[in-house]
Specification:
597 residues, alpha/beta, DNA polymerase, domain 1, Beta Polymerase, domain 3, seven-stranded parallel β-sheet, DNA-binding
DNA sequence: GCCGTTTTCGGCCCGACTGTTTTCAGTCG
C-alpha cells in the first residue's frame, strides 16, 4: 500500500472526527500523522515491519502505530468506517468549500441533512441558510459562490499557470504603483510545488511612502486590476482576489522591517514553520509573521531578512524548495544541506521534438532557439513508429533523421546537435526500433505511450525489460502522470530505480509543466540510490524550451545537486556519463539479442 | 491521540479577517 493511500485514510478520519466534534486535539493527531506519512520518502509499509522505527517518528505514538497496522492489513480503518456510517463521505467535499468549516458543515448536516455540495448550493439559492445562527445573508452568498467554484474546478492550478498569474500581477503593481518598492512571490509557488492552491504576493513600500494612507492607496489600486473577477477580502494589509482564470491571489502589504519574517511565514510550508516556531520557543523567543521577538516583553530581535532569522535560530539559510519538514532542519543542523542545482547550471536539453514527428519547428530552429538560451548542446529526440498519431519514425526515417541532424550542424554553429530518439517502450518492454539503428544515435531516450493501465506487476516487468535493454540510456517521463488529468503508472518504483542504478540508465525529470515527472519525492529516492538524472523539457516547439525552469525547481525539491544531474556536464563528459551502448560493428549478436529481449 | 528540562494532565501555532454580533465564534493560512 502506498503512503499516499495510508495518508488519505488518516486525513479522512481526521476530517470526520473534526465534524464529529469532541476532543479538539485528537483529530489533529490524525492529521499530523497523515501529513507526516504523505511526505515520507520511505514506504510506510517497510517502516511498519519494525514498530520501533515508526514510533521514532514525531507525532506517531502507540495508538497511531496500531491504526497504521490495521490500515496496511485491511486496506481500511474501523474508526473511519464507523464515522462514515454517521456521516456520508460526500460531507468531506462540503468541508472543502471556502467559508465552510467543520462547525458550519455540521450545522448544515444536522439542520437540513445537507450531505453534498449540490445540497448546500440548493439551500443557499433558496435563501434557507441566512437565518441559521452564525450565518447571514452575506455568508449565504459566499457559500453559493464557493459551491459554484467547486463545481467549476477542484481549486488547484498547475505550477506554470500560477507562475504566469503571479508574474502578470507583480508586473502590474511594480509598473503602476510608484510607492511600491518590491513585489515578491511566497507560498507554495515559491517552494515550487507541482500544483498551487493560491498565489501569495508580498509587497513592501518605499521608505517615506509607507503610511497607512499610502498602503490603502496601493490596495485600492490593486483592486482596479482589470483581470480581477471578484474580491474576497480587503483588510488593512491584505487583499484577496480571484482572477478571471480562477486563480486566487492573496496580496500582503508589509512593513519593510517585517519583510523577512513575513516571507518566511508565508512561504511555508506550514510544517516547516511549526518546527521553526518550536525551535524559537525553546531558545526563549517567539516567531510570527512580523518578527522574531523575545518571549518575555516581546522585544524585537530579527525580522528584516530570512537569513537573519535562520541565523538567530542557529541554522544556515534553507532554500524554499526544501522547506517541507522532510529532514531539511536536521540537515541544516548537521551542515549537510545540499547545494541545489540551478537553472544556470544546465548546459543542454536532452528531449525535444521537431517537424519530423509531432514538433512544430525544424531541427535548425530548435538549435538556434536553444543556442539563444545559452545551451552548449541539445538532443533532438523525435518519436518512433509506435506513436502513429505523432508521425513516429521507423528505422529508415530514423537513419535519414540522423543524416539531417548531422547536416544541420553545419548550418547551426555554436551549439552541438546530438542525434537522438524518443523510442517507445512497447507493451512487452521491447523497444520500438532495431538495435542496429539505435546504436547509431548519440542519445536514446525510451518512454511509454501506450497500454498505460497494466497491472503493477506487468508494468514493473515492462520497465525492467526496457532498462535491461542495452540501448536504453534515459527513461523519459517515467511515471506518465499528467498533473490533475492522469494518474501515474502503477509500478514498483524502488525496483525500477535499483535497476536503473545497476544498468547505468538515467531517469528523466521532465520539465513540461503538465508532467514534472519524475516528481520531487521520486527524484529524492533516485538520488539516494545514486541514479543519474537528466532534466529535459520535452519541447514540441521553440516556445517550450524555457520550461526547463520548472524541471529545475522540481529537481531542487528532490534535493538534487549539480553533480546529480548529468546535463550540467560539458558535451563530452555528458556523452561519457550516458550508459555506453553496444556498437553494432563490435558485437554482431548484441543488437539482435537486445531486440528479442 | 501525542507529548513533556513548566511531564502523567492539560494543552494542542497563532494572528487576521469576516460576518455576525454588541464582544466573539468560525474560518483560513
Amino acid at each position: 500500500m502506498e503512503n499516499k493511500e495510508v495518508a488519505k485514510i488518516l486525513f479522512e478520519t481526521a476530517h470526520l472526527l473534526e465534524l464529529d466534534g469532541g476532543n479538539i486535539g485528537r483529530y489533529r493527531s490524525y492529521e499530523k500523522a497523515a501529513e507526516l506519512i504523505y511526505s515520507l520518502h520511505e514506504r510506510v509499509e517497510d517502516l511498519a515491519k519494525d514498530k520501533q522505527k515508526l514510533l521514532e517518528l514525531p507525532g506517531i505514538g502507540e495508538g497511531i502505530v496500531e491504526h497504521i497496522g490495521e490500515i496496511l492489513k485491511t486496506g481500511d480503518y474501523s474508526l473511519r468506517r464507523k464515522l462514515l456510517k454517521k456521516y456520508p463521505a460526500t460531507l468531506l467535499d462540503v468541508l472543502q468549500l471556502q467559508s465552510l468549516g467543520p462547525k458550519k458543515v455540521s450545522i448544515l448536516w444536522r439542520e437540513f441533512g445537507a450531505a453534498t455540495v449540490q445540497d448546500v448550493e440548493k439551500l443557499a439559492r433558496e435563501e434557507k441558510l441566512r437565518d441559521l445562527p452564525g450565518f447571514g445573508e452575506k455568508s449565504e452568498q459566499n457559500i453559493l459562490k464557493a459551491c459554484e467554484f467547486f463545481t467549476k474546478s477542484t481549486g488547484r492550478f498547475r505550477l506554470d499557470q500560477a507562475t504566469d498569474e503571479a508574474e502578470r500581477l507583480s508586473a502590474y503593481v511594480r509598473e503602476t504603483c510608484s510607492s511600491v518598492e518590491s513585489v515578491t512571490t511566497a507560498g507554495s509557488l515559491r517552494r515550487g510545488r507541482d500544483t498551487i492552491g493560491d498565489v501569495d504576493l508580498l509587497v513592501t513600500m518605499r521608505p517615506g511612502q509607507d503610511k497607512q494612507k499610502d498602503v490603502d492607496d496601493v490596495a485600492e489600486h490593486i483592486l482596479k486590476y482589470p483581470r480581477i473577477e471578484r474580491s474576497l477580502a480587503h483588510g488593512e494589509n491584505k487583499v484577496s482576489v480571484v482572477m478571471d482564470t480562477g486563480v486566487q491571489v492573496d496580496v500582503r502589504l508589509l512593513q519593510k522591517k517585517c519583510f523577512g519574517a513575513a516571507l518566511l511565514y508565508f512561504t511555508g510550508s506550514k510544517e516547516h514553520n511549526v518546527v521553526l516556531r518550536g525551535r524559537a520557543n525553546d531558545m526563549g523567543w517567539t516567531l510570527n509573521e512580523y518578527a522574531l521577538t523575545t518571549l518575555k516583553g516581546g522585544k524585537f530581535f530579527a525580522g528584516k531578512t530570512e537569513e537573519e532569522i535562520y541565523s538567530k535560530l542557529k541554522l544556515p539559510y534553507i532554500e524554499p524548495e526544501l522547506r517541507e519538514n522532510t529532514g531539511e532542519i536536521e540537515a541544516a543542523e548537521k551542515g549537510t544541506l545540499p547545494v541545489l542545482v540551478r537553472l544556470e547550471d544546465m548546459r543542454g536539453d536532452l528531449q525535444m521534438h521537431t517537424t519530423a514527428s509531432d514538433g512544430r519547428n525544424s531541427i535548425e530552429q530548435m538549435g538556434e532557439a536553444a543556442r539563444e538560451l545559452g545551451y552548449e548542446y541539445i538532443a533532438l529526440t523525435d518519436h518512433s513508429k509506435a506513436v502513429t498519431v505523432a508521425n513516429g519514425m521507423d528505422e529508415k526515417r530514423t537513419l535519414e533523421q540522423i543524416k539531417k541532424i548531422r547536416a544541420a550542424q553545419e548550418r547551426v554553429p555554436g551549439i552541438r546537435l546530438l542525434a537522438g530518439i524518443e523510442v517507445d517502450i512497447l507493451k512487452s518492454g521491447q523497444l520500438d526500433l532495431d538495435g542496429e539503428v539505435l546504436a547509431q544515435l548519440d542519445v536514446v531516450v525510451a518512454s511509454v505511450h501506450s497500454y498505460m493501465n497494466l497491472t503493477r506487476e506487468e508494468m514493473t516487468e515492462r520497465l525492467l525489460a526496457a532498462i535491461e535493454n542495452p540501448y536504453t540510456q534515459i527513461i523519459a517521463h517515467p511515471t506518465g502522470r499528467l498533473i490533475m488529468r492522469r494518474e501515474p503508472f502503477d509500478y514498483d518504483m524502488q525496483k525500477i530505480l535499483d535497476a536503473a542504478k545497476k544498468h547505468g540508465v538515467a531517469m528523466e525529470c521532465n520539465s513540461y509543466p503538465d508532467r514534472l515527472d519524475l516528481r520531487d519525492v521520486h527524484l529524492r529516492m533516485a538520488k539516494q540510490r545514486g541514479v543519474k538524472i537528466v532534466i529535459s523539457t520535452d519541447s514540441h516547439s521553440t516556445t517550450h524550451l524555457p520550461f526547463m525552469k520548472y524541471g529545475v525547481i522540481t529537481a531542487r525539491r528532490g534535493w538534487l545537486e549539480k553533480k546529480d544531474v548529468i546535463n550540467t556536464l560539458p558535451a563530452g563528459e555528458l556523452l561519457a556519463a550516458l550508459r555506453p551502448k553496444p556498437t553494432s560493428a563490435g558485437k554482431p549478436g548484441a543488437a539482435k539479442a537486445a531486440k528479442q529481449k
